[in-house]
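Note to self: user wants both folds in one dump. Writing first protein now.
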Amino acid sequence: MKVLSRFLTRFWLLVIVGAGVPAGAMASCADFTNLGDAAVADYDISTVQAGLRAALEDSNARLSDGRLGSVTRAALGKLCAKVPRQGVGPDVPQTLDLATDYGTLSGLVAEWRSIVLAPGMIARLSQSNGETRMALRLAAGPQMAAAALTGTASVADCSALGDAGSISPAAQTALDLLSGPQLGYALADICAALPITGTGEDFLSAMRRLGQMDLAMAGATDTLMSDAFGVWLTQSPGDRLPRLLGSVPAVLALLQDYEDGKATAPIVIDTPEPAPLPASCSARTVDSATHYFAFSQDNLDALTENVDVQAAFEAVKEMQFTTAQQLWAALQANLQGVLDQCTLDQIKELVVGPEFLPRAFLIDEEATKSLSFIEDLQDVMPVVEPFIGRVAPDEETLVSGLKAAVTQQVTLEINDQVEVAATTLAAAAEPVPPVLDTRPEGVPDYELPELPATIGVTDATDLAIASTVLNEAFREALADSNYLPATQPEILKGDVRRILRPVAQKQIDAEVDAKMALIAPVVMSTWSLTATLKARILSLPDVSGVVDDPTNQDLETRLRSLVGVEYPNARLFRSALNAVPRVDGSDATAPPLSDQLVATALSLAERDVADKFKDRAFGPLAAPDCGCVPKRPETAEVYGFYPFWFAPVKDAPPPAEGEDAPPEPTLQLVDFGLVSRLAFYGMELTYANPDGDETTRNLSLIHADRWIEARRSFVNSAHRHRAKVDVAFDLRDWSNWTASEINTAATEITRQLQAFERVPTQTLADVQAAIPTLFDQTYPDGVTLVFEDYAGKTMTDLNAQNLIDIVRAVHAKLPQPENQHVNIALDFSLIDIPGQQPVLSNLSDLLLTGRSLAQKRADGQEEGQFSRREQQETKVVNKILIFLERPTTETKKRLRARMDRSDFRGKERSEILRSIIPVVPPSGHEFVFQRQQEGDVTDEEALKYSQFVDDAIYFEDNFSGIGFWPVPRLTDPDISTIKATIALDWNQHNLPKELNVIRAPLVQVCTWACPNRAYITLAAAALFAFVVILTIRSFYSGAINQLAFRLGVVWIGMGAVILMLFVLDICDHQAFWPRILMIWLIAILGLIIGYNFVQRVKNGPKP
C-alpha cells in the first residue's frame, strides 16, 4: 500500500509541475540583461546578492548595494550559465531561487564555500558518506546544510508537527524513504537523527526538497546516501560541492551528471586549490641593500636534519594540549632547528588553521571516574570506562561510540526485564479450553478431533506478573493486552516480546538519553599530533620531497664550505650552492643539489635586517692593538664593505616578560692591519612608489640617517689608521632613471661626501677626540656605486648609457674632486657566460684614463702618453669592484679571459685590469680546496684554504687586490688565515734591510705609534720649538748655554726629535715630511756642532 501511495504521489506531482509551466515561459540566460524590478519583486535582493557573491566568489561592492543594477544582472547571468539545472521551468526564477539558497546559506555560515572544500569535509564525503549521510544533508537546503557544515548537533523540535496526514506528499515521500532501523520509523526519530539549524518547519522544508528530488529522479535519495556518490563528488570538489548546496534543479542536474558519468571514462581528480603559501615561502620580488644571504652552521644542521622530523613527532605524540597554539609551540620548539621558516609556517597553518586537523576528542579521566558515584550510571560504567584514553577525530565519532556502548548495555538490561516478564507469564499460564469459532447456521455438528491442550492468561497469571515484573510500564502494557490461548509456552513468550518491544524501545531511548546527558560533560576536546595532522605534515613538499632526494647525501661534508659565507643577493649564493661537490658516482651533467635543496638552503640563509630604520650606536671602529694599514703595492688593495647593521641598535627594547635578555650587542670592529679601504654600506636609491609614473614614483635615498650617525667615527677611525673611506650606494632600477632623476641621485650622493667639522663643539671631549686625526681630512675619500643587474656586456634590455651618465654626474659633483674618487661595483654573471664573451667594452669612456679609446686612436695618439696630472684630472672611475661567484678557480680566469676578448688593448687593458677588485665572502674558505692534478697530495689538512691562497696570489698578479663583502669580523674563523695570507704575499716593510735586526720590536712600536702619529708630531714640534728657543737664548745667556750645551739638553732634545721623526717615517709609510725634516735636523745639528767647534777654537769656551 505504501509503494502504491508513493507512486501515485510522484505521478500527480509531475503532472502538476508539468502543467504549471507554459511553453512560452522558457527563457535564456541572456534575458538577465533586460531583467526588470518586477521580476524580483518576490525576492529579497540583498539575499540574492549575498548568494551571488559567495557562488561567484565576487566581492564587487555593487553586489552589496541592495539594488538590481547592471552588475547584479550580469552576475545572475553568470550564475545561470555556471550552475546547470534540470527540469522544466524558466531560467529567471530558477536562477533567483538558486541565488537565494546560496544567500540564505551565507547568512547562516558566512564561510560555507571554504568549509565545504576543506580537506576534512572532502575526506568525510569520500570515506564515510553512506554512514554520515553528509551529501544528503548538504543537498537538503540551507538550514540542514548549515548544521552539517558547522557540525551542530541541535535537533529541531518536531513534536508539534502532527502526524503523517498533515505532511505534504513530497515531505512524506522523503520520510518514507528515510525511515528504517538506522533513523527510526517515526517522524520524531528521523527529525532527531538529522540535526538542523532552525525549527521543525525548517526540517519539513528539508524533507520536502529531498522528496521533490526523489519524485523527479527515482533513487535520488539513495544516490545521495551512497558511498560511491560521495567519492564522485570529491573527484571534482571545486565544481560539484557548490552545486550540491544549490537549489533542487541544481542538485538534480548534478545527480544526472553522476548517472551519465557511470558509463564514461573516469573523471580526472580535481582537488581544491591549495591554500596560499605563507609570506616566508614567497620569493623576494623586490630586493634591497638590507636583504642578504648568510649561511651558518645552524642552517647546515637544519638542512641535514630536515629529513628526520620523526624525532620532533616522538617528543609530542603522547602529549595533549588545551589549545592549538600550545601544540604549535611544542612542535615549533622541536622543529625550529630542523626546518626552514617557509616549512615551519606551512606546518603552523596546518596546526592552527581552520581545518582543525589536530583537534581530537576524548573523555576526561578524572571526571569519568567521578561518574561512578552517580547512582543512575552504575550499570553503564563498565562500558564507559574503557573509553578513557581513546582519542576520536571528532566529537560526533566519540559520542556515537559512547552512545552505542551505553545503548548496548541498557538494551541488555531492559531486554533481560522483557525476558523475565515473558518467562513469568508463560510459567504462570494455566490450562484453558480452546477457543473455537461459532458454528454457522446450517452446518452439521461434526465430531471434533482430538486437540492439544491449550494454556492461557488467567487471573492467577496476572497476579504472578504483578508480583514479579517490577517495570510498571511493562505491567501496564501486559495488563492492557489480550492473549489467545496457546499450545506452547514459547508462543506466549513471543506475544510478550511483541507487546513489550515498543515499550522497551522507548525506555531504552529515554534511559540512553538521560545517561548520555550525565556523561556529556566529561567529553572534552584536546589538541594533539593526530594521524591526520602528521600525514599532512609529512606530505608537505619540503618534508617529503627531501626524503627521496638523491642529492641529499653527505650534505654535512659537501656543504661545509658554505658555512660562514655571506652574499648581498640570491644569485651569488645560488652559484655557491651549485659549486659544492657532487655526490660520488652521480651524473656529472646534473646539478650537485636538487632544486628543492637549493630552495630550502636559500630560505634558510635569507636574512633581512631587523630594526633597519632605528638609530644605531656607532663609535671608534679600530680593533684593539690595531696598527695602521701596512705598506703594499698599488695592486694589493684590501677592500671591505661595512654594513651599517654591524652597529647595535640604540636603546634596544627590553625582552618580553619571562624571557631572558639576549646578549648585549656590540659594535663590530675592523682590523685595519688587513683592510686598507673601507666602504660604508647600506644606503640605497630606490623608488618610494615603484608603481607610479615618472612624476610620482619619487626616487629617494633611504638609510642616509645611518651614515649621518656613523660619519664622524667612521671617517676618523679609518683615517687614523691610514685606511681610505668610501660611501657605498645601492642603485635600484637605475636603467629606468630619467635625466632629472639622475641629477637628483647625483646631488643626493655627493651631499653625503661633504666634510664635517673637525671639532663640532669647543668642549674638552671634542677637542681631545679631534687630536688623533688633526692632520687628516674630514671627508670620505670616494664613493662606490653598486649597479644591480648590469650584465657586463653590451646590453639591449638595460640602458647602459644611464650607467655612464650616472657615474659622470656623480664625478662632476664631487665636493673634493682632487681627493675623492668614484668606484663602481658590479655583480654580473661569469660562470654561465663563455670566456669568449667580451666584458665592460661599453663602459670604456668611464674606465680609461683621459679620452675614450676611439678618440685616442682617431687622434693618432699612442697609448700611455698622458701625464699623471692629466690622468688624475680626467679619470672617472678609480676602482671596479666585481662580486665574484663560486667556484672562484673558474670565474677569476673567465673574468680575465673575457677582458682579453674585449676592445681594450695593451696598456688600456692593463689599466682596467689594475682597476678591478674581485669581491668574495670573508668566511667559508677553509674547505674550498684547490683543484688537484693527478698525483698531487690530497691530504685534507694540507688543502685547507688552498683555494683562497691561490685566489689571493692570482688577484694580486692580474687585478688590483681583493674585496670582502662584508668586511671580515674579528670573530670570523677565517680572519687569521686571511690576514696571514695577505701579509705573506702583499705586505711590504718600510725598514731598510740593514735594520732588520730591530724589525720585531719596531713593529710593536709602530702598532702604537702610527695611529697616534698626531700626538708624536705635536710632541716633536713642541720639543723642536723648545730646542730652537733654548739654542737661540744660549747665545745671550751663559746659564742657558750651560743648560743647553754643557748639560746636553739641546743634544738630547734634538736626538729625541730625530728619533720621533724616524719613528714617524718608518711607521707611517704614507708620510713623506718626517724623513725630510729628519734629514734637515741632522744637517742643522751638524752645523750647530761644527759652529760650536769653530767658536771654541777661535774664541775659547764661552764665559
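First done. Writing the second protein, which came from a different request thread.
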Amino acid sequence: MDQLSVHSASSDNVSSEFEVVQAMETGLKIADNGNESDLKQNLKEIMTSSQSTLASNDTSLSSEDKSEARPDSLMLQSQENTLSKSPDDEDCILFNGVYYLGCASVNAPRSEPEALRTISILRSQQEPSSELHRSTELPGDTDTANKQIEIVLSIPSRADGTVRLLEPEGTVVMGSYKLYTILFCVRGADESIERDCFAFTESHQQSGIFQCHVFRCDVPEAVRKVLYSFELAFRSIPKSPPTEQPPTGIQLLKRSQISEGESVVAHDSSFLSPGSTEALSQQIVDDSIYGFTVSLEIKEDDGKGGYATVPWDKTSSCFKFRRNLEKKVIVTVTQTSNVELTIERCFGLLLTPGRNVKQSDMHLLDMERAVPEEENNVVGIHTVVGTWDPTHQHFALLNSETQKGTRVFLSVAADLVVQEIQEPVRFLIETKARVFPQTEKFWYFGKKILHENFFLRLNELPSQKVSKKMFEVVSVQSETSRIKWTSSPSHSSHPHPEHALSSTCPKDEEDDDDTDEPLLSGSGEVNRECSERVLSDWGDALSRWHADLSRRPAGLRSLVRAGGVPDALRGEVWQLLAGCHDNDAMLEKYRNLIVKDSPQENIIQRDIHRTFPAHDFFKDTGGLGQDSLYRISKAYSVYDQEVGYCQGLSFLAAALLLHMPEEQAFCVLIKIMYDYKMRDLFKNGFEALHTKFYQLERAMEDLMPSLHDHFKQLAIECHMFSSQWFLTLFTAKFPLNMVFQVVDIFLSEGELVVFRVALGLLLCCRQELLTLDFEGVLKYFRVQLPKKYRSDDQTKLLIQTAVQVKVNSKKLKRYEKDYQVVKEKLALEEDPMIRIERENKHLMDANMRLEMENDDLAQELNTTKLTLHTQLEKTMQHADDLQRDLQTAVEDLRATRESVAELTDENQRLLVETKQVKEMCRREMARQDEELTAKSNIISDYKTICSQLSQRIEDIQNMHKEEVERVRKEQLVNGGQSSESSVGNDAERRSREEKERLQKQIRDLELELAQTKLKLVESECKVQDVEHQMSSVSKELHATKNTWFQKTLSSLTTRKSESSTSGGGTAPLPSPTSQSNPFVSSRAPGDLTFTKRQTVT
C-alpha cells in the first residue's frame, strides 16, 4: 500500500465509511448471473447511455481554452483562478484530461477485488484488439474514442461538498454525486494496464443500489493526485457552517432612514423560508410587530480539542446526541422586520428537558461569550454561546440513551436585554433529540441548524424623552404556534403533532418500528413476606371485624394505605370489604348460572386466552384457571343481561380468582360491578366513561397544567391512555404487585381511588412525559410505565402519591356538571343541518354496514348450501359404498358358515382318529415297555456273566503264575538230572501249548464280550429311537390335519412292519442260562493252565 493509502486509512478524521486502498490483481464479481452474455448486455447499456448528457444545471463556470489543454499533462487548477462562480459557490479543484469510462452495479460496495475487476473490464473496452471490446462493440461503432467521455472532474474541498462531472468547456454539469455517498475509492495496479484508471463506489441510499464509476487519466501519475484530493475532502469535516445571510424576508430600516422619511420596506422573496412568506407579509402592515429569527445550533466535543456540530436526523426531525460528551449551545438572534432594535446583551441562556416546562424547571447554562451586533457583518444579529455539562443531574434525561423509536423534548431559552424594551425578552425554542452511546458514529452532512421565526408585539410607552422611544412586550409568538392555531381556529380540533416543531428539515416521518414488547398481563412477583407486627395488627383488626360484621374496624383504612393487605389474607379481606360475608343465595345462584347458555360465549372464549398469559394459573389452554375464568365470565353475562360481558371484565375476575375460589370470586365481582358502580361505565354507549375522561382531563389541568398543555399540543387525549385504567382497574397492563394494592385501596375507599391512582401515575412520570413526543408518550404508557412498577418501592411511592392527591367527590361532581354544560352547549351551537347530515351519515353507514352484513350472510348462506350439497353427495356415495360392503360381508359370512360346518365335521372325524391313534400309541408303548424290560433284564444278565468271567480269568492267571513258580523250583532242584531236563522240557512244552490255548480262549471271550456290549448299545439306541418316534407322533396328532395324520399312521405302520421283519431275521440274544453259552465252561478250574494274561482289543 502506498503512502497516500496509509494516511487515508489511518486518519482519525476520516469516517469509517470511506476507504482508499492500493490496487491488487483480482477478479470482479459481476451482478446478475455473472456470465458472459449478461456482461456483454450490461456493457452495451453502459456504453450507450454514456453517449448522452445527463440532466444539466446551468452554472457560470469558466475554464481555460480547450486549445491550451495538452493530452499528455493533467491541469490542476484552483477554483478561484479558473472559475468565476462554481455551482453553489463551492470551493473545489478541477482536473482536466479525465475520461469517464462508464459504471457498473456492484453487490459489495467496499470490495476491492470487485472494483478492480470493474476497472479491468471497462478499461479493456478501450483496447480495439481485446476480445471483450470486439464482443461488446456496438453496430456501426468503429471509433474507440467514442466509448469514453472526456470530462472535467470537480472535487470539493470539504466533506459536505459535491463531486461533479463537467463538460470540457466547464459550463454544463453532466453528473453530480454527494461526497458522503462515495463509500470506496481505488486505483489500478502500478504494473498493469489499468494504472491510469481509478474508480469510486457510490451509494443510492434510498434504493440501496451501489454503482462503481470508472475514470481514466491521460497521465497515469495524475491518478495519485486525484485520490489525494479525495482524501483531503474526506478529512475536511466542517466544524461549523459558513456564515450565511440571515433568513429574512425584509430589510431592516435604520432610524436615520426613518428620520429622513424613508419608510419603505423592501421585500426579497428569495430569502423567505417556506411557510414564512405568507405569515410575514401579513404582518408588514402592523407596525407593532417585530420579526425575529432565532437559530439553534448544538456542538459536541470531538475529542480533539474542538467541537463538532451535532447531526440532525431528517427522518425523525430531531438532534442526535451522544452521552457524556460536553456540548455547546449556540443561539443566534436575528431581527428580520420593522425598525431595528438594539440588543445589548444576553443575560441568561437556559436549557431543560421537556416542553411547556415551568420557569423554575429551566437550568441556567454557563455562557462563554456573546457576540454583539458590531462584531457581526450583518446588522441585527446577536450570538450567544453557552456550555452544557450533560453529566449534571438536571440533564439526566438528556444524557440517557433513548430507546428505539422514542425521542425526548428539550427547551432552550435565551433572555435578551433590548435597549428600547423595559423588560427582558425571552425566545423559547422547543425541539426533539435522540441520545445514543458515546461511541456512536453519525453522518455529519445535513442541515444541523434549527430556525424558528418569532413575532414580537410591542406597545409604545409614553416617555418624556423625545429622542428615544420605549416599548413594553405585549406578546411573543412563534411561527410554529401561529401555524398551529391558524390550522385550528375553533381550538376544538388538534393539529398533527409534527406541527409542534418548526425546522429547516422535512417534517417527521413515521418512527422506527416499535420493537419493545409491552409487559404481559399477569406478570410480576408478589411479595408474600410480612412482618410479625403487621400480621399482629391485621389479626387484631380481623378479630374485631368478625365480632361485628356490620361495620369496619377502626384504623382499617390506614392499614390498607400503609402497605396493602398481606397476600395471605387478601382473599378473606376482599370478601369482607366487598360485603360478601353472608351471601349463600348468590352462591347457589352461581351454580345455576354456569349451566345456562350465554350468547357471548365466543367472545368470552376468545378473551380468556389473552387474560394473564404470563401467570402459570391461566397460561394453559383448558387448564383449571381458564376454565374457572370462563365460568365466571359466562355466569356474569347471564346474570347481568343489560351489560352482559364486556371486554376487560376478565382481567378483574382473574385478579379475584388468584385469591379465592370461583364462587366467592363471582360474588365479589357482582359487588364491584353493582355497589362500586363499575357497570355504569359500560352502559349508554360508555357515556359515564367519557365523563370520567373529562373529569381526569380537568383534574390534570388543575394539578399539572404543564403536562396538560403538553398533551394538548401533542393532541393526546385522556382516552388514548386511560380507558383501560377505568375499565379494568389497572389490572390489564400493570404487574400483579401493583394490581393487588390498587384493588386493596379501591375496595377500601371506593371509585374515587381510580382517579387518585391515575393522577398519581401522571404525577410520578410527569418529568419523563414532558420530554416525549406524540409517539413517545403513547409508547411510554404502553411499555415503559407498566415496567416501572415491577418493584415494590415504586408501587409504594405510587400509592403514597395517590392518597395525597387533592381530589374529592365535590370537585368531581363539579367537573361532571361542567361536562354536561359543555355537551349541551355543543348541542345548541351545532347547526341542525350538520346534525342531520351527521345522523344521515351514521344512518347511511349503518345501512351500508347492514347491507354488507346482508351480503355476507347471503354469501355465507350460498356457501353453506353448496357445502351441504357437497356433503350430501359425499354422504350418499358413502352410503352406497357401505351397502356394497354390507353385501360383500353377508356373502363372506355365508361362506364362512359353510366353511365352519365343514371344519366342524372334519374336527369330529379328527377327534375319532385321534382317539384311535392314542389307543394304538398306548398299545405300542406298552409293547415297547415290555420289550425294553426284557432287554434290560438280558443286559443285566450279560453284565453279571461278564463280571463272573472277568473274575474267573483273574483266578486262572493267578493259578498259572503259581504253577510256573512251582515248575521253576522243581527245575532248580532237578536241574542236574537229564531225566529231569527232559521232563522239564516236556512240561515246558505242554505248558506253552496250554498257555496258547488259554490265550486263545481269552481272546474269544473278550471278543464275545465286545460283541455283547455292542449289541447292548444298539438296543439302547433302538429304545431311544422308539421313544422319539412316539413323541413325534403325539405332536403330529395335535398339529396336523387329516392328510398329515394319514401319513403319520402309514409311517408308524411301515416302521412296525420293518421292525417285525428285522426281528425275524436276526438271532435272538443268548440266554445266560442256555447250555450253549460260550461263557459257561464245563471244565474244572484245575484243568486249565495259563502262561500270561492278555487283553483283546
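Dump finished. Worth passing along: The chain has four domains: 3-235, 255-500, 679-806, 903-1052+1079-1097.
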